[in-house]
Design a protein that fits this description.
461 residues, alpha/beta, Nuclear Transport Factor 2, Chain: A, Rossmann fold, 2 domains, 8-stranded mixed sheet, 7-stranded antiparallel sheet, disordered N terminus
Length: 461
């Protein structure tokens, strides 16, 4: 099985929301000198002890033994969220080996090759001169391609009609890179309507895989079973993170440009009706959908699925508080982390141009400051095309309050429709009770109601 690699350089933290609010922050790694003395065995044992604390979810112990640098960049709650998001994204840790040790100036680093579900994750522990934990970094992620998802022995969602479409392996050319993609084409005569699927935050494959779930694959299979072509592609940040400067990144670099290229690609195919191409964005992709439409005015409409209408940092603070309270109690450490996050958010919002900014969940303040400049509802009000807004009522990442924000801004327009699903979470999977990160590790499929509503809405256009 071929693996795709996410070469993210020296990543301070990977927090993959299924808004996921996930961002990889690439930092500059110091050079390793050939004449550096070897690392003492007891230092490797100390690094392994730190890594075992991380795997065992003893995050408070790990954090308390950290350096001042670590404590200033990551709170206990944020460090725990790194662990939670890795498990959400790829699955539980099944194995890891002895670390590879290197010296880098007055610090030592230890690389652990770790297996999270089917993903191989290279994680790095850095110790300072005093032997304190100085950083936890994600260096490389290798995940299987989604080819097994198209295998005949995968039963798929209950609405799948396998004989109703065919799947093509294609490449999406965007600027100077090519992104692996899948195009599902209905087996019908004549040209068909088509949808481009746009991911949430963070590095995603073309199925937007989260744990055992593949929401984009479900949507593609469901809509193509209903006569609608679907293009889904790997997000640029999965295998081409080096093409983006994280301190200068914009939503165009991360999401919009590639989506516009996908729209162009579909409109040029002979199987596709060029005046019936739509964009369906999930989470951050939903927030970006109005901006994609602004750059691709030939679109027939946009679908906002669990897209935030409020500023993204507001959602970050809410998510951290929600996760802290999932177990029914909020510890003093969690409460302090929540307050520290709120304080950092306030500093970012109040900062003068060019000011040094704090990190939030380990991600550069400049990235959050950039996202705060986008107002998706205001952008959507400038559009004349049809819009469909979908929201799960159980979603704790993008909430009903965001859904109401879309309604306040766009309600009353004849060509804008809204759908609220009482039993769905952020991935549009069915569940009961209060949603939480562990729910994403349960196998499920995008709700049939979502597939049917989207298909019916497209057919009317």
């Amino acid at each position: 099985m071929r693996e795709d690699r996410s070469n993210l350089g020296c990543v301070a933290v990977l927090v993959s929301f299924a808004l996921s609010l996930a961002v990889a922050l690439t930092l500059t790694q110091g050079a390793v000198r050939a004449d550096e003395p070897p690392v003492a065995p007891e230092r490797a044992e100390r690094a392994a002890a730190f890594f075992n604390l991380f795997v065992a979810d003893r995050i408070e112990d790990m954090h308390s033994a950290g350096s001042d640098r670590l404590k200033a960049s990551l709170s206990v709650a944020e460090l725990r969220q790194v662990r939670t998001r890795l498990i959400e994204k790829y699955g539980a840790v099944s194995s890891f080996g002895e670390p590879e040790a290197r010296r880098m100036g007055d610090r030592e680093y230890f690389d652990f090759h770790t297996r999270y579900g089917q993903a191989s994750v290279k994680m790095r522990i850095l110790l300072d001169a005093a032997g304190k934990l100085d950083a936890l970094q994600i260096i490389d992620v290798a995940v299987p391609t989604s080819q097994p998802a198209d295998a005949d022995d995968d039963a798929g969602p209950p609405y799948l009609k396998r004989d109703a479409f065919r799947t093509l392996k294609v490449k999406l050319r965007s600027g100077d890179i090519e992104l692996p993609a899948r195009l599902t084409l209905p087996r019908v005569e004549g040209r068909v309507p088509a949808v481009v699927l746009v991911h949430g935050s963070g590095p995603h494959d073309f199925d937007e895989t989260i744990g055992p779930n593949k929401p984009f694959r479900d949507i593609a299979w469901g809509l193509s079973s209903a006569g609608i072509a679907v293009l889904r592609y790997e997000k640029r940040t999965l295998n081409h993170a080096a093409t983006i400067d994280p301190l200068r990144m914009t939503l165009s670099h991360e999401t919009i440009d590639d989506a516009v290229a996908a729209v162009t690609m579909l409109r040029q195919r002979e199987e596709i009706d060029p005046v019936r191409v739509f964009v369906m964005g999930h989470s951050l992709g939903g927030m970006a959908a109005p901006f994609i439409a602004r750059e691709a005015p030939e679109l027939a409409g946009i679908i906002v699925m669990a897209g935030n209408s409020r500023p993204i940092l507001t959602l970050v603070a809410e998510q951290i508080a929600h996760i802290a309270g999932v177990d029914g109690k909020v510890t003093d450490a969690e409460r302090s982390a929540i307050e520290a996050t709120r304080k950092a958010i306030s500093e970012i919002r109040a900062a003068a141009p060019g000011a040094e900014l704090p990190t939030v969940i380990g991600v550069a303040g400049k990235y959050w400051q950039m996202l705060e400049t986008y107002d998706p509802v205001a952008a959507a009000r400038e559009l004349s095309l049809p819009i469909l807004v979908l929201q799960g009522e159980r979603d704790y990442q993008v909430t009903v309050e965001d859904f109401e924000g879309w309604k306040r801004g766009l309600g009353g327009r004849a060509n804008v429709e809204f759908r609220l699903y009482s039993d769905l979470n952020h991935l549009m999977l069915t569940g009961e009770g209060k949603s939480n990160p562990a729910e994403y590790q349960k196998r499920g499929f995008v709700s049939r109601a979502v597939i049917e509503d989207v298909a019916a809405w497209i057919r009317r256009r």
